[in-house]
Specification:
The complex is a heterodimer of chains A (361) and B (547). Chain A is mostly helical and 361 residues long. Chain A has 2 domains: 30-82 and 138-341, MetI-like (MetI-like fold, Orthogonal Bundle); 89-130, no CATH class. Chain A is built from 15 helices and 3 strands. Chain A has a two-stranded antiparallel sheet with strand order 1-2. Chain A starts with a helix and ends in a 5-residue tail after the last strand. With 547 residues, chain B is α/β, with parallel strands linked by helices. Chain B has a 6-stranded mixed beta sheet, sandwiched between helices. In chain B, helix 4 packs parallel to helix 7 (157-169) and helix 5 crosses helix 7 (157-169). The two termini of chain B are 37 Å apart. Classes of the chains: A mainly alpha (361), B alpha/beta (547). At the A-B interface, helix 1, helix 11, helix 12, helix 15 and strand 3 of A face strand 2, helix 11, strand 16, helix 15 and helix 16 of B.
């Protein structure tokens, strides 16, 4: 009896799946994750916006690497640099009862206010002494993005490897790695940052970011370790072992995708945190050094002029907010792509709008 | 005439999913009389649990209920939350499936009983404690006064369920809702808990609403039975009528799918004289090493048995008897302390990774919980193909073909290969588990409780499939299960374990018809049979044997 039912059900299942059979081409885990990520609208838009911001900032100000003594510079397309001072231009752009250096960017067409659309000499204004703010902000964005990406990627990499190895192997390996983590954790970040800044600050932003990344992985390592401790007891790990998988394959193919949520959440936090650490260090004089700038130094430097020249605040602020938002949305998209199950909350509106499903009683 | 303690009429439960109300229970009508038991049976997803949780407003926020639920004449669905709260625990008490999770681990069981008492009655701590100890005595917990101060983890599974019942009985409830009260327990413990519930029903004259999928338990307890399928009541009748004269085809099908101890056709044992055993254990001892303050624990002692090609050996025993330990050691997932294990002539006791890899290519394993044994982030096609890929048997195009063949073999559509495990039902997932285990054409398949997470009708199909595959592919099988009726269907020989020792090994018919060891006899007597009359006789015989 049961057998007959089985065959009936299987045959109906087969009919239903005639259409689905077209998609029987075998997809690997990576391909499926990629497809799901591409379908995530917010993440794709954020990715495009972030790439545009990066391209915009890097091409506008050019690329600046190397130390103060031997700089490696590729010039950008913007005609002012951060060291050019243009006091006449600042005075020309006076507005609001004598405040100098107002933005000359005007996006309102002439039939509304009569001045017409124009970019002007200093579209984003200048600071008090006449340094072009477009040059400063794009350069600052470039530096901050480099710090953020390098710290984020390095921190995530070290943290994941340390946490995964400690959590998976356990025992003595775990004990040693976690004590090392503790040593890193108990040292205050700002002290480490000050030492690093003092020693490497004049080498430019890349070595600084590398060193910061080297001291930013501890929290992530702990989270990843806890995830691994629970995941390694699951039966699918045993199943993989029986199938003949090596430790490396089990860690990276089987357990890591299951821990990706934690890694991405802490990774995005780490990246936003990196901007703040860099700002704090720069504020103390150990990070990015004048005349070079970062978004953080711009904001802290002009914090007093908010009431008179608010644009000195807006532009770097807008960059920080949009970069952080993009990173967070991309993180969301990645997490959803890796997690086949997604949940959403139900609101009262949902309840009222819901359709009735009639079933014959 | 007595009033019913619970009267449910035109009762509906719906769940909100993605903009649609999906019904979980449709137009239910029933009554529970004091001192009587109404059993709601059905397979998972039939709405039996959610309908009973909804009675007292215990459902999640995405559910809604309608109709009337009268407890002692007051409608619970229209009453204020405050009134309903007063009824909970006092007039209507719940016994949950998992005593381990339903009891709060950071409070003593005494505290949890006292809490219920003092919420509902103006009672001092001393009086409440006296009453709690009285309740613990009532549910037969050893040393009630001492157990009062014990934490849930200090009690065994059966004792925890007894404590749970004591909490439920604290206020002499008029109605007891027992949601799968014995599913997490061993058969012998289950028999004791059912005896206790039966005794309490007569003593306290409470009505019991019993929700279960186990027809044996129903036969043991119920006066009336309500059969549910997809939220609809398909049949509602007395226990006698349901079991002996089922009217609805679904009820008949459900009863037919239940494996019944002692009803499988006799089976000839596989002749094993000339063959070499595929799996042989000699004096195997397995020890879990000392951990912190916990001393080392011997999970299996001096186990010896052999499995010959084409033979199914059923390994039965209660939880903690070491049967899973034996299964895991046979595939090299646990180190062996003493003795030797040979798989297809390869000695595992050395523990060298080369021997292990070699042995594992001759072995397949089906795990207990299909939800946990498949990687949730891996499409099932990859899970199935992994052994082939890693053994370098096939890759690329050929691997894809082999995966399709394996899916055909376990009767799953090929298009399922790109699905994730959570998109499949429990039975389908377990088929994937078999497909993966059979990928390398193993000499021996180790199946660790493969059906315990499945509904009876799905279990029946699964067992059919396993038997068909075994007959065509001729692999040997170590089938580990706590359910003797299932083992009876499959096994040629049966081994019984208790407390890490092998109690008895023998041909299936010898073990089931004339068990020699007293433990085996007790185990067989405790299995509930889905037939009220027969079960009554068995129960009386068991009680007579015990006293």
């Amino acid at each position: 009896m049961a057998k007959r039912n089985a065959s009936v059900e299987v045959s109906t299942e087969k009919n239903e799946n005639e259409i689905a059979l077209r998609e029987t081409e075998g997809l690997s885990q990576g391909q499926i994750i990629f497809r799901r990520f591409v379908r995530h609208k917010a993440a794709m838009i954020s990715l495009i916006v972030l790439v545009s911001i990066i391209l915009f900032a890097f091409t506008a100000s050019g690329i600046h690497l190397g130390s103060e003594q031997n700089p490696i510079t590729i010039p950008g397309w913007w005609h002012f640099s951060i060291t050019d001072i243009d006091p006449e231009g600042a005075i020309l752009a006076t507005c609001n009862d004598g405040v100098t250096g107002c933005p000359t960017l005007d996006l309102v067409p002439s039939f509304i206010d009569g001045t017409g659309m124009q970019i002007g000499a200093h579209p984003w204004g200048t600071d008090q002494i006449g340094t072009d703010y477009f040059a400063l902000v794009t350069r600052g964005a470039e530096q901050s993005i480099m710090v953020m990406l390098i710290v984020g990627l390095l921190g995530v990499f070290i943290g994941t490897v340390v946490g995964a190895v400690a959590g998976f192997f356990g025992g003595i390996v775990d004990a040693i790695l976690m004590r090392v983590t503790d040593v890193f954790l108990v040292t205050p970040t700002i002290v480490i940052g000050a030492v690093i800044g003092f020693r490497f600050g004049n080498l430019g932003v890349v070595p600084l970011a590398l060193m910061l990344g080297f001291f930013a992985w501890m929290g992530l390592a702990r989270f990843v370790r806890i995830e691994f401790l629970t995941l390694r007891e699951r039966e699918f790990v045993d199943a993989a072992r029986i199938a003949g998988a090596s430790n490396r394959r089990i860690i990276f193919k089987h357990i890591l995708p299951n821990a990706i949520g934690v890694i991405i959440v802490s990774g995005t936090l780490l990246m936003s945190g990196a901007i703040l650490i860099e700002t704090a260090l720069s504020y103390l004089g150990f990070g990015v050094r004048a005349p070079d700038v970062s978004l953080g130094t711009l904001i802290s430097q002009y914090q007093d002029s908010f009431s008179v020249s608010p644009w000195l605040f807006w532009w770097p602020g807008a960059f920080i907010v949009s970069i952080a938002l993009c990173i967070n949305f991309i993180g969301d998209g990645l997490r959803d792509a890796f997690d086949p199950r997604q949940k959403r909350r139900i609101t009262l509106k949902d309840r009222l709008k819901a359709r009735e499903l009639k079933v014959k009683a | 005439m007595t009033e019913p303690v619970l009267k449910v009429s035109n009762y509906n439960v719906d769940f909100w999913v993605d903009g649609t109300w999906y019904p979980a229970a449709i137009d239910m009508n029933y009554e529970v009389m004091p001192g009587k038991t109404l059993a709601i049976v059905g397979e998972s997803g039939s709405g039996k649990s959610s309908s009973s949780m909804g009675l007292m407003g215990l459902l999640a926020s995405n559910a809604r209920t309608s109709g009337t639920v009268e407890v002692k004449g007051i409608d619970m669905l229209s009453a204020s939350p405050n009134t309903v709260r007063k009824f909970r625990g006092k007039e209507v008490a719940y016994i949950f499936q998992e005593p381990m999770t339903a009891l709060n681990p950071v409070y003593t069981i005494g505290f949890q009983i006292v809490e219920t008492l003092r919420v509902h009655f103006p009672m001092g701590p001393v009086a409440a404690k006296a009453r709690a100890v009285e309740l613990l005595t009532l549910v037969d917990i050893p040393n009630p006064a001492e157990s009062f101060d014990k934490y849930p983890h200090q009690l065994s599974g059966g004792q925890k369920q007894r404590a749970m019942i004591a909490v439920a009985l604290a206020c002499d409830p008029a109605l007891l809702i027992a949601d799968e009260p014995t599913t997490a327990l061993d058969v012998t413990v289950q028999a004791e808990i059912l005896d206790l519930m039966r005794e309490l029903r007569t003593k306290l004259n409470s009505g019991i609403l019993l929700i279960t999928h186990d027809m044996g338990v129903v036969a043991d307890m119920a006066d009336e039975i309500l059969v549910m399928k997809d939220g609809v009541t398909v049949e509602h009748d007395t226990a006698d009528n349901i079991f002996n004269r089922p009217k609805h085809p679904y009820t008949q099908q459900l009863l037919a799918a239940v494996p019944k101890l002692g009803s499988a056709p006799s089976r000839t044992a596989i002749s094993s004289e000339n063959a070499r055993p595929v799996l042989s254990l000699k004096d195997v001892t397995i020890e879990y090493p000392k951990r912190g303050r916990q001393p080392a624990f011997q999970a299996a002692k001096n186990i010896s048995f052999e499995i010959y090609p084409g033979e199914i050996l059923g390994l039965v025993g209660e939880s903690g008897s070491g049967k899973t330990t034996i299964g895991r050691a046979s595939i090299g997932l646990l180190p062996i302390k003493e003795g030797s294990i040979e798989v297809s002539g390869i000695d595992l006791s050395s523990g060298s990774s080369k021997a292990l890899r070699e042995a594992r290519s001759h072995t397949g394993m089906v795990f207990q919980d299909p939800a946990s044994s498949l990687n949730p982030r891996l499409p099932i096609g990859e899970s199935i193909g992994e052994p082939l890929f890693l053994a370098k048997v096939a890759k690329g195009e050929e691997l894809a073909h082999r995966i399709e063949d394996l899916l055909d073999q376990v009767e799953l559509p090929r298009s399922y290969r790109n699905r994730y495990p959570h998109e499949l039902s429990g039975g389908q997932r377990q088929r994937v588990g078999i497909a993966r285990a059979l990928a390398l054409n193993p000499d021996i398949l180790i199946a660790d409780e493969p059906t315990s997470a499945l509904d009876v009708s799905i279990q029946a199909r699964f067992l059919d499939l396993l038997q068909e595959l075994q007959e065509s592919l001729k692999f040997a099988c170590l089938f580990i299960s706590h359910d003797i009726a299932v083992v009876e269907i499959l096994a040629h020989r049966i081994a019984v374990m208790q407390h890490g020792r092998l109690v008895e090994v023998g041909d299936r018919d010898q073990i089931l018809r004339s068990p020699k060891d007293p433990y085996t006899q007790m185990l067989l007597a405790a299995v509930p049979v889905p037939d009220p009359a027969q079960q009554k006789l068995r129960r009386e015989a068991r009680n007579a044997a015990r006293s």
